[in-house]
Amino acid sequence: MLNNHAKLMQFFLEAKEVTGRKKLQKMIYILQSLGMPFEEKYQFHFYGPYSEELSLRIEELCNLGFVQEKKEEKSNYYQYHYQITNDGLEFLNQFALDMPNYKAQVTKLNGKSARFLELVSTMLYFHDLSRAEVEEKIQTVKPKQNYSEEEIAEAWTFIDELKQGLLQ
Amino acid sequence: MAYKDEQLNEEKVFKDPVHRYIHVRDRVIWDLIATPEFQRLRRIKQLGTTNLTFHGAEHSRFNHSLGVYEIVRRIIYNFKDRKHWNNDQRLLCMCAALLHDLGHGPFSHSFEKVFKLDHEHYTQQIILGDTYVHKILERVRPGFAQDVADVIGKTYSDKLVVSLISSQIDADRMDYLQRDAYFTGVSYGHFDMERILRVMRPTEDQVVIKSSGMHAVEDYIMSRYQMYWQVYFHPVTRSAEVILSKILHRAKELYENNYEFKLKPTHFLSFFSGEVSLEEYLKLDEGIVHYYFQLWQEEDDEIISDLCERFINRRLFKYVEFNPNKQMNEWMKLHKLFLEIGIDPEYYLVVDSSSDLPYDFYRPGEEEERLPIHLLMPDGSLKELSRHSDIVESISGKKRTDHKLYFPKDILDKIADQDKAKEIKEILYGQGDVFDVK
């Protein structure tokens, strides 16, 4: 029961705090792409892979009091902060979740910007294409973001590091 | 004349209860509709198990696909000669609209969850693989099939084209809301689509709405909101969906444990083993699924036989509202008691959450999470809808989630151990009303 909810709560436990909905979406997608057993269904949207199922599940966790959402007003948008609550911890303690240890990857992802994670998740979305094709696709689907060659190179290195970390 | 420009000698029309007529003039569209892959959509219901709640909801993915095509055709007609619109994209848009749901299978939500499938993956495969649809698209020009697949997959370079088929106010949603309202017979779900089509404006990378049309869009958002709660999240439909998923789980589990079915479930074997070829995927439709469910009623395995009998004869589970935060201990007690009386809680004590359902609410797209609906203001600037509309703003922040606990009340009523029966009922019925699924 509520296994997928518990996996997300454990993620928040590892992350301590996640700032930004876009960042949260991309973090879960990247972990899923690297083989972590998150089951939320993703589709490609304007800002890269997006899961409505994840959005609704987070909303459920907040409504249940398992995750706390803080809304912060910025100049022309709202920013959200997420943390697991004591009720969430108590609920999670009753679960025997079989998840690999991925704390280091969560910390690594959490240290990056939403813009960078949007790039990484988009690159992973086109995993069946060659590197050259992926880079071409990035410019096609995200012309306005103007990702530089350096950022793309950094993203490839980052993906390799994440993969290696999960293999160890 | 090039195939892409070929027109039928006279316009063909499909009578349609929602749009009155679906108009087809392009040879390419006419040929696509005639393919076996598109005709297969007649055998897949748009709303899966909803007809067990709203008996009129027998409409198919075929009806809906034609409807989306018709809406896009009308939008493009309105866009002709407008700035930012390139009419060379006309055929591409119409093909993508027509084919956007081509990969849906029978009861696709449950099938996708249980067998870890993705209908969008099959849509891409049908368009790009060795199919009749692919051959027609490639006759238009080499690479055209890939463009259609990219528009449907939302990775096409022209975002304006993508947003016609897939955005928070797109042809897909405008058709299914109206069509589902019509066939379920509910009075919500209706909005002034003609008005919305008139106030849609193409921009460089998305469709926006002229601010004077805001009230028509508010009506659309309200319809969407009401349809979710009244139709898509209906607890009776969810009960049927729970049973359907459990049948598929049980069949898979039996197969994995080398259970001998009385008749080999040939059409399901690839689904059980997790390697479903396109050919096998296309063979499965609702008729086949119902055929197996009929047969499985006669199986020796009591669980699959009982669940199939329930699904076929609409003997659904009852439910109570459930709060996992406050009632986790009760759930654990119930789980234990069910095991003690010999009822497998894995199949007969099921929590269903709103996030287990496939529909989505309007989201204002905070922090670029998701592209919102934009209003085109008189000064040419764009404003996000909920920042301008009090109605949309008020429903955007509402609690939209729930959890229900489903169980077979009829079995509980017949438990021989009276003490355990009492204990179970006290936990279940002590939580408030037990909702009868009629």
Automatic annotation (TrEMBL), chain A:
<protein>
    <submittedName>
        <fullName>YwgA family protein</fullName>
    </submittedName>
</protein>
UniProtKB/TrEMBL annotation, chain B:
<dbReference type="InterPro" id="IPR050135">
    <property type="entry name" value="dGTPase-like"/>
</dbReference>
<dbReference type="InterPro" id="IPR006674">
    <property type="entry name" value="HD_domain"/>
</dbReference>
<dbReference type="GO" id="GO:0006203">
    <property type="term" value="P:dGTP catabolic process"/>
</dbReference>
<dbReference type="Pfam" id="PF01966">
    <property type="entry name" value="HD"/>
</dbReference>
<dbReference type="InterPro" id="IPR045509">
    <property type="entry name" value="HD_assoc_2"/>
</dbReference>
<feature type="domain" description="HD">
    <location>
        <begin position="61"/>
        <end position="177"/>
    </location>
</feature>
<dbReference type="InterPro" id="IPR003607">
    <property type="entry name" value="HD/PDEase_dom"/>
</dbReference>
<protein>
    <submittedName>
        <fullName>HD domain-containing protein</fullName>
    </submittedName>
</protein>
<dbReference type="GO" id="GO:0008832">
    <property type="term" value="F:dGTPase activity"/>
</dbReference>
<dbReference type="Pfam" id="PF19276">
    <property type="entry name" value="HD_assoc_2"/>
</dbReference>
